[in-house]
Design a protein that fits this description.
By secondary structure, the protein is α+β, with helices and mostly antiparallel strands. It is built from 17 helices and 89 strands. A hairpin with a 2-residue loop joins strand 40 and strand 41.
Length: 1325
């Protein structure tokens, strides 16, 4: 049972005692003056005898509480919606809209409002109970709208019959001043008595599910101190101000708990209780009004003291509001509510929907975003949408979207998406690219336009759109919802991006030189060398340098140098020629020299000095690694042939030597040797297998070079300069990998027990002994050693995705992290390369970390990209043939997970795959540039990881022979090599808490027979170590890691220091902003990683005269620029602030007319004046309260449509003025007038009444005005009575040959001459 009601604490006791003194003094004043503004009001004089209390609907959430009631045994049940969706229904706006409105009309309004609320998807109505003029219920002290009909009772019953909850607003300080309802101006006994009387009567009559009290704060007024003195003192003035609101709420709350214990008590709060500057427990907001300091209302304390069961917070700011951002308001209040078991509801400003004059409200999805945001806050119980009329209006489809959200018909991730463009990365730049690709994310429920034309987005809102760039400036304006991005791209034409080789190229004769050009797609590329033209063709091969988001493509061709002669040949420069769309361009390549002919054996003896020397074929010249050529170990002997070969590509120059054995090596990997290799003898061979490795040791007379060939049945080593070899091991019985080791001439072949049953080896010379150490295939994932490498990371985000922050590095890391977890759960030892930091993890570091881990399997996880958004599918790359089978399994696993196009298992030149130590593959899971695959990569990473884990398992099963016997088998002359010592690659090491590390033990000698060691830590509470030397930092401190050899018991140590977690990054929620003088905004800093030991942030401003900063709160002081720095540890983040002249807000708006009368279809013009004159924005927003009666244009022109009344409002900022327009029926003009009699003779002094008839009968104005043009002869009165004054004719004129006498009279706004008397022919005398 939730205890929402608890006994009040003693916290308020002193206030209560002190206020008793004040109230007693106030009572004396009241008795003396005999004046009670709350008690002298006339309410309804009778009750409805037929009225019955409506029954509550069956609640979907019934909460038992413990009431503050004399009978503690009486249980109380609250009716609470699981998730409130309420709309306000307000008197004067939604019902009771006319004075003296008939009951039937009011009922229709109420029914229409309730039906509309239901249609909006609401489960609750929040009913207003009064207006400025009347109470909407049967009141004792406030005038009511209807003496015989109770609208509130009818509304309650109607809502509950529709299955809706009913809550009410209740104004605690409303009082009637004889003309209208106003706020009672002071705190005294009269106020308290009035509340007790009015609220008590309300509770006896009505039973809403909850009451939200409004108007309970006490802002300090001009008369506040006098009021305090009139109350008789008894406490300090400040305590009087601060305690009044609490006393009012305590009284009201106690009345509800006593008279209606099943009704929840609530408060409507302002957005801001207090700022952090006003109170350390306050909010990081900047509203001008604080409840605590301005309203003297400690709503926080009332909540903590359980005076209320719920609160409704005026969260009127948008999510991006600079002063009262919605989420920040909701977060503070909801956390307060949750901590005190009080329900919190957010009141949304529905009247601001799709209104760009309010910050952040211009987009139609703002309201829905707010509703979604509330879901993440525990203390928030739902929403109140303020303004049924605004909700019904559905501006720009805002409410339609909200209803879809209520019905779970939209993806909330889409709604929260703003326009974000990942490609291009800059708004303004210059490029040689012929095309620009816009790749980004949007809300799929709203259009994206580029230069006014809507572009296609997929169901998730992702888009990829290319445009050709014309030479010069190209401008693209991209609009989505209320966000606009303008790109200014200057295109320069250059067919060639790069060519190779360049510089000076020194080669041998009959060498194939690879010519490479990066050039525009569809260009025609040739190269001229030594008078010969070579046509270059498209080359789709990829390596680590391939830029998949560029429209430049690779072209290659081959030129073979002429045969060498007795002297150096200078072939001149390579000239690359390009032609594209009528433009021709040349690019200079390398200058080629062909070395003079060299006889074999004329070179120098050399020794390999690199740990592993990469080898290349001698028949070609480029720097492309070749998977058919395996590295040579340090110590191998050979001879050079000819002079140094030089090859330049871009800014890199490579130098090589050819070896007599037919290999090409880097010049830096060898050095001259005094030892000449010849007549090498293999004296003996031993093959030793243990649980994890198999070592083939060859006891040789000299460490010679060799070449390697691989087939699915075995691996062969062909030794150079070999004279003889030892015997064979034709049938191995103690080895899980090999079934035999046999010689054929100078070639040793190791035959696999199972096809392709090898997962990497290393080679090393120790003196004259060659050790080939192979990884034994694991029996299953359990026990396997696997490295998972998430591609890219740190400053290298890889291929750009559609959504901000969700680029390739993010996708790769998600998949890799999940994959590592799955493999660990299946029993594997896994090294996950850490790419989560801010620094780029270079390829060499990745390989070094992997090599130190000594894995059997390495998988690098990547995602693909292309300029063509339709490119799709998954693929995988291998380098050495022994990894091809693993590559096939990984490629199949990706296809199974993605269900897309299978691009195959491919040979590739990626650096991380170019090692023989383990099986290694680079996987391209799908295309970041393809909208649908991008969604799969983001949403289905667990499925992809699971499928990859299965692929790894299937590969292991395919190479595991099931043969488990181990031991040593020998032939010829071999000897056991004892261990003579051990060293570690590090003697000291620093780690941060939570990080991992790796130590590598090196035995002396390296080819010692027994390679086994044990690892231990002196303090597992600081750092742990497994039996492969992998470290895990646990907590700050120091520990010693010890490695010990099994043979001889030799030991080595490393002191590990674990440091607290350091700051890797500081982020600000804004990196640039514009303020106006006097503005205050708050910047929020995020310190990463989340487990940083010290997150203290220091703030500074480069120009404090312009912008002051205190704990992230910015105050704009003067025009200018400033850089705000947030620093934590050694990391900083920056925000550039531009301060502009202060905005002058409108202080008043006036209209040239406050009333206007028009007829139907008539027009009138209103002119608005905004003061002061220097107001920054004087734009007037015109609106009509009833557009069916009259509309108003942007220039203030009012057009009347039908009879009725409408209020025209002119608004500028927060100020407005109104004009009441009365529309009457269209005027009907008279068409004719007749008079009776038409002839009249009078004697002097005689009178006669004339009658005028105006047609048509429905003429709007039938008023007749009478006049005589000779009043001295005949006078006519206002009623048409004619009086003869003299005997002369009144007036004569001739028409059609006859003379007439006549009078004049007028009607309406016009006049007509009427013939009265026909006179005999001829002119009268």
């Amino acid at each position: 049972m939730s205890k929402f009601r608890k006994n009040n604490t003693k916290k308020a006791l002193l206030f209560t005692l002190a206020f008793a003194v004040i109230i007693a003094g106030a009572l004396a004043v009241t008795l003396l003056t005999d004046w009670n503004p709350l008690g002298n009001l006339v309410g309804p004089t009778q009750e409805d005898p037929g009225k019955t209390e409506p029954e509550n609907p069956q609640p979907d959430n019934m909460v038992d509480v413990e009431p503050n009631d004399p009978d503690p045994e009486l249980p109380v049940t609250f009716n609470i919606p699981d998730r409130m969706r309420a709309v306000t229904i307000l008197p004067g706006e939604d019902y009771l809209t006319e004075k003296n409105e008939a009951a039937d009309s009011v009922k229709k309004e109420i029914d229409a409002a309730l039906d509309a609320a239901k249609d909006l998807g609401m489960n609750t109505v929040l009913v207003g109970t009064s207006t400025e003029d009347f109470a909407a219920y049967e009141s004792l002290t406030r005038p009511t709208a209807n003496a015989v009909f109770d609208p509130l009772d009818y509304l309650f019953a109607g809502a509950r019959s529709r299955g809706m909850y009913v809550y009410c607003f209740y104004d605690l300080k409303a009082t009637y001043d004889g003309a209208k309802l106003v706020t009672y101006p002071r705190f005294d006994t009269a106020l308290m008595n009035g509340i007790e009387k009015e609220l008590g009567a309300f509770l006896e009559k009505y039973s809403p599910d909850g009451l939200f009290f409004t108007n309970y704060d006490f802002p300090e007024s001009d008369t506040a101190f006098a009021d305090y003195m009139n109350c008789g003192g008894g406490m300090s003035y400040q305590d009087y101000l601060d305690g009044a609101s609490r006393q009012v709420v305590e009284l009201a709350s106690s009345l509800v708990r006593k008279k209606a214990p099943g009704v929840q008590v609530g408060l409507v709060t302002e957005p801001q209780w207090a700022t952090t500057k006003e109170n350390e427990a306050g909010q990081n907001t900047l509203d001008p009004y604080s409840m605590l300091t301005d309203g003297h209302c400690d709503a926080k304390a009332m909540i903590e003291d359980k005076l209320v069961d719920m609160i409704a917070v005026k969260a009127f700011g948008s999510l991006t509001d600079g002063k009262i951002p919605f989420e920040r308001i909701v977060k503070w209040w909801s956390e307060l509510a949750a901590a005190n078991e009080v329900r919190m509801y957010a009141i949304h400003a529905a009247d601001r929907m799709a209104n760009s004059s309010y910050t952040g409200w211009g987009s139609s999805d703002q309201m829905t975003k707010q509703a979604i945001t509330l879901e993440s806050y525990k203390g928030c119980g739902g929403s109140v949408f303020y303004g049924l009329a605004s909700m019904k209006a559905d501006p720009a489809g805002s409410v339609t979207l909200l209803k879809k959200y209520f019905r779970n018909e939209v993806n909330t991730d889409y709604i929260m998406t703003e326009l974000s463009i990942s490609v291009p990365a800059k708004l303004t730049y210059s490029t040689y690219e012929p095309t620009v690709l816009f790749r980004g994310a949007s809300d799929p429920t709203n259009p994206v336009t580029v230069n006014g034309t809507e572009i296609k987005t997929d169901a998730n809102g992702y888009f990829s759109q290319s445009y050709n760039l014309k030479p010069g400036l190209n401008t693209f304006t991209i609009v989505h919802k209320d966000k606009t991005l303008v790109y200014k791209i200057t295109r320069n034409v250059k067919i060639f991006q790069s060519v190779a080789p360049t510089g000076t190229l020194t080669v041998d004769g009959n060498t194939d030189i690879t010519l490479t050009a990066m050039a525009y797609e569809d260009a025609k590329i040739t190269a001229v060398v030594n008078g010969q033209t070579v046509t270059l063709t498209r080359d789709n091969s990829e390596d680590d340098n391939t830029d998949k988001d560029s429209f430049y493509v690779k072209y290659t061709g081959t030129y073979r140098t002429p045969a060498a002669s007795g002297s150096v040949k200078n072939l001149g420069n390579i000239t690359f020629k390009g032609s594209w769309e009528g433009i021709d361009e040349n690019e200079a390549g390398a200058s080629i020299k062909v070395n003079k002919i060299t006889e074999v054996g004329s070179g120098s003896p050399i020794v390999v000095t690199a740990s592993q020397a990469e080898t290349f074929p001698t028949s070609t010249l480029d720097d492309l690694s070749d998977g058919s050529y395996y590295p040579l170990p340090k110590g191998a002997l050979d001879y050079t042939v000819g002079d140094m070969i030089v090859f330049t590509s871009g800014s890199s120059t490579y130098r090589y030597y050819k070896l007599a054995s037919g290999l090409r090596v880097y010049a830096g990997d060898i050095s001259t040797s005094s030892q000449q290799v010849q007549d090498v003898v293999v004296n003996g061979m031993s093959i030793t297998a243990n649980a994890s490795t198999t070592t083939v040791a060859l006891n040789m007379s000299q460490p010679t070079s060799y070449s390697v060939s691989y087939s699915n049945g075995g691996i062969s080593f062909t030794f150079n300069y070999l004279k003889s070899a030892c015997g064979n091991l034709s049938s191995l019985t103690k080895n899980p990998i090999f079934s035999s080791a046999t010689w054929s001439g100078d070639t040793l072949t190791l035959r696999f027990r199972k096809t392709n049953g090898m997962c990497g080896y290393t080679a090393s010379y120790n003196g004259n002994t060659l050790s080939l150490q192979f990884n034994n295939p694991p029996s299953s994932i359990a026990g396997a050693r696997i490295v998972i490498d998430p591609g890219h990371g740190g400053t290298d985000v890889g291929a750009l995705g559609f959504y901000p922050g969700k680029h390739e590095d993010y996708v790769n890391r998600q998949i890799a992290t999940e994959l590592a977890a799955i493999l660990r759960n299946r029993g594997a030892s896994v090294l996950l390369i850490d790419t989560s930091g801010s620094a780029k993890v270079v390829l060499q570091t990745r390989v070094a970390q992997a090599s130190a881990f000594k894995p059997q399997i390495f998988l690098s996880v990547h995602s693909n990209s292309a300029t063509n958004s339709s490119a799709r599918g998954s693929e995988a790359y291998y380098f050495y043939d022994f990894s091809q089978q693993f590559c096939s399994y990984i490629n199949s696993a990706l296809y199974n997970a993605m269900g897309n196009y299978n691009r195959g298992a491919k040979y590739g030149l990626y650096y991380v795959t170019r090692t023989t130590q383990y099986t290694s593959v680079l996987a391209e899971c799908g295309f970041m540039s393809n909208e649908s695959e991008y969604v799969q990569l983001l949403q289905n990473y667990s499925q992809i990881a699971s499928s990859l884990a299965n692929g790894i398992g299937n590969y292991i099963n395919s190479i595991y022979s099931g043969y488990t016997a181990t031991g040593t088998e020998t032939v010829g002359k071999v000897s056991q090599v004892p261990v003579k010592g051990v060293t570690l690659d590090k003697t000291t090491l620093e780690l941060t808490a939570g990080a991992t590390g790796q130590l590598v033990a090196k035995l002396n000698p390296e080819d010692a027979t027994d390679q086994s060691v044990t690892w231990s830590s002196s303090n597992n509470g600081v750092v742990t170590v497994d039996q492969n030397g992998s470290l895990k930092a646990v907590a700050a401190g120091t520990a010693t890691i010890i490695v010990k050899t099994t043979d001889g018991g030799y030991a080595a140590t490393c002191k590990v220091t674990v440091k607290p977690v350091a700051v890797t990054e500081v982020r600000l929620d804004q990196i640039s902003l514009t303020m106006k003088v006097g503005d205050m905004l708050v910047l929020n800093a995020t310190v990463l990683p989340e487990n940083v030991t010290d997150k203290t942030v220091t703030w500074s401003s480069s120009n404090p005269a312009a912008v002051k900063v205190e704990n992230g709160k910015l105050t704009a002081l003067a025009e200018g620029n400033a850089t705000i720095t947030a620093k934590c540890g050694e990391k900083s983040a920056f925000c550039t602030v531009t301060v502009q002249k202060a905005e002058v807000l409108a202080e008043s708006v006036t209209l040239d007319q406050t009333t206007m009368e028009l007829t139907v279809n008539g027009t009138g013009k209103l002119t608005a004046t905004v003061k002061p004159d220097e107001t920054t924005v004087k734009t007037i927003q015109w609106s009509s309260s009833d557009e069916t009666v009259a509309t108003v244009g942007a220039d203030g022109t009012v057009t009347a449509l039908k009879e009725g009344t409408a209020v025209i409002t002119a608004k500028c900022g927060e100020k407005s003025a109104e004009c009441t327009v009365t529309v009457k029926a269209e005027a009907v003009m008279p068409t004719s007038i007749t008079m009776e009699p038409t002839k009249l003779s009078l004697t002097v002094g005689q009178t006669h009444a004339l009658n005028a008839t105006v047609l048509p009968e429905n003429a709007t104005d039938k008023t007749v005005t009478w006049s005589s043009d000779a009043p001295s002869i005949v006078d006519v009165a206002a009623d048409g009575t004619v009086t003869a004054k003299s005997g002369r004719d009144s007036k004569h004129y001739r028409e059609d040959g006859q003379w007439f006498g006549c009078d004049l009279y007028r009607y309406g706004n016009g006049g007509r001459r009427i013939k009265l008397t026909k006179i005999k022919s001829g002119r009268p005398e």
